[in-house]
Structures are given as structure tokens and as C-alpha cells.
Design brief:
- This protein is mainly α.
- It has a single domain (6-394), classed as Proton glutamate symport protein, CATH 1.10.3860.
- 75% of the residues lie in helices and 0% in strands.
- It has 17 helices and no strands.
- The protein is globular, with a radius of gyration of 21 Å.
- The protein binds aspartic acid.
- Residues 261-263, 296, 299, 337, 339-344, 373, 376-377, 380 line the site of aspartic acid.
Length: 410
Amino acid sequence: MKKLSLSTKILIALIVGIVVGIFLQGSPNIANNYIKPFGTLFLNLIKLIVVPLVLASLVVGTTGLGDIKKIGRIGGKTLAYYLLTTAFAVILGLILANVLNVGAGYSIPVDATADVKEIPKFVDTLLGIIPTNPLKALVDGNMLQIIVFAIMLGGSIMAIGEKGTPLQRGFESLAEVMYKMTGAIMEFAPYGVFALITPVVAVNGPNVLLPLLKVIVVVYLACLLHMLIVYSSTLKVLGKFNPVKFFKAIAPAQVVSFTTASSSATLPINMKCVESMGVPNSISSFVLPLGATINMDGTALYQGVCAFFIAQVYGIDLSLGQQVTIILTATLASIGTAGVPGAGLIMLTMVLQAVGLPLEGLALIAGIDRVLDMARTTVNITGDAACAVIIAASENELDRDYKVKETVSM
Ligand code: ASP
């Protein structure tokens, strides 16, 4: 047992969890009452690191970048990659939904009702980027606000020179401590992953899944293709980086994102995986938290497929113009989606409203959303990681001799 690497253990835990979940399908209460709490415990443990980790490593990252120009340049490239890949993801989702006729042969009673939550207005999201009270942003775990504050803090520390050094050292130390804590917590990952996946399988048995199997197949296929086509080719062409090496190194983070369905909870392990590929901390600590907050290729793709599915199920033909609207709104909606489980479903309202599709359709998706969430979150965090590698390469800061080592052993 000692010989197994942590990533192998996590993978085994995932498979065992699925098998146990299948056995417990008749009695999901056992899974919910006795196994799920351990998953929640693990989830709480990783969530606990996120805010201090992002703050400290982003401040350190900003000061490490050296000058404001460089921050602007890296920021610009990062945003361009994020936006373009997200728009491509929706297009891919729509193409597959069209070609595979995702909603054909399935129509549902129109009286299905969804528990639709209010979605935040886009303007409010934009205005809310600047925190009026940074401590409140930290307490609330408002990631965008924390990012803005950390960059301003790092920039100002840099600007005052020597006087800022003690504070910079303090953040460096805090960041190191948080990395150490991440490593320690990840030792529990196999148990956490097992406890998270078992109830999902036990509760979402074949009865819930089968009628909507086609949506699941299309979303999973699109997710897979997006990763294989977009990330592999951009890594190869823009980053001159071997995609196989990339996918091997990112696997532990993918299993965690698959089971937690949360980009934000996957952030600590994602940072470790990316750094194991030779990306300097100054870049990963900037690109990844931003990505975990605004870059959601999987979510955008899922929203495209679901919008198309709902239209078909309700017998509505989408024009080309409407599909273009879906591309635009799904890209925006995914940016506004929080990196927590289920957020993408709420933001799907925005896409449906934009093209006048019945919101009741959400109720259909809601039943299988968790299963879709696992796949889309995995794409979300993989896109962030690919971007980090590419940016590091473009800045000539990728340590290519760096041997991919066991990601989380410390
Ligand atoms: N769960 C996703 C994430 O954390 C967001 C979503 O619901 O689409 O990345």
C-alpha cells in the first residue's frame, strides 16, 4: 500500500466509491447519513484553505512579477485565452447538440416546476469587483474581490520598496504555511473522494439518469473533446508543452474537481499540480484563482447543450441568430458563475431567458445536474491549468527541466 502514489490512491477511491454507490442504490439513506458526512468533512477542510491561500499567494505572486507592465501583459493574455476558449466551448457544445439531436424523441409535461433562484445582474457583478471592505470580502470568501484586493496590495508593497519588505515576507511565510497545509489535507483525499462519490451514485441511480442519458452523453463527450482538442492543441502550439505530460500531472486535481464539483475547492490542489509542471508560483497564483472564478469552459459548454436540449424537448426550433445569442450569453453567464457546486444551473436561467426558452426546463436538468456538474467542473479547472502552463511558457518562465514529481507529497 505504501508504494501507491497519492494520485493512484485517489483514483482507486473513486472507482471503489462508484461501486459501493451502485450497491447502495436501494438504500441511499445509508450513503447519505453515514458516508456523506466524511465527504463534507473533507470538503470543509479544503474550503478552509482557499481564502488565506489565494490572498497570500496572490500577494506574493504580484510582488514576484516585478513590474506593473508585466502584470498587465500577463493579465491581458490570460483574459484573451479564457474568453476565446470559453466561446469555443459553447460552440462545440452546440454543434454536438445539433449533430447528435440531444433532445429528440423526448418530450416532457410542461407543468414541471423548477426551483429557480434569482441570478445576479451582470452590472452588479461588475460593480461588485471592487470591495468597499476588504475584510468583508475575505470573510465572505468573495473571490473576485479578494483577487482585486490582493493585486492592489501586492502592487503597493512593490511600489514602496524596502518599507514593504516585512509585509511581503509575512505573506511569503503565510503562503508557505498554506501550501504545507494543503499537502497535509490532501493526504485525506482518497477517503474524501470515496465519501463524496458514493452518495452521488447511490442517490442518482439509473432511474433518474436513464431518461436523460443523452444529455449526459453529449455533455461528457463535448467535455472530453474540448479538453482533447482545445487544451492539447493550445498547449502544444502556444506552449510547446507535451499534452500527455500535462494530463498526467493534472490528474489528481481532475479527480478532486470531479468529486467535489467545485472549482474553488479544487484550487489548492490545482496550484500544486500546475507547479509540478514547472510553472512558477508568481504565474500560477495569478492565473489559477482568476480562472477558478471566471473561466468556466465546461459550464459554458453545458449551458449551450442544455439550452438546445430544452428547446428541442419543448418543440422550439432555434434559429441561427438565437444560437449566436446562446454563445454570447453562455460565455457571459459562465464568467458570472461561482466556482461552487450547482452554480452553473442557476446561471443557465440567464441563457434561457435571453433566447426566450421556458425556465421550467431547468427542472429537467436539475435532476441530473450533479452528474453534469462533475464533468463540467473538471473541464473548468483543466482550462485554468492549461492557461497557466501556456502563460508561463510565453513568458519564458516555464521550467522545462522540472521533473513532474508526485504532486502532493511533501
Ligand atoms: N461547479 C462548477 C465549478 O465549480 C460551476 C458550475 O456549476 O458550473 O466550476
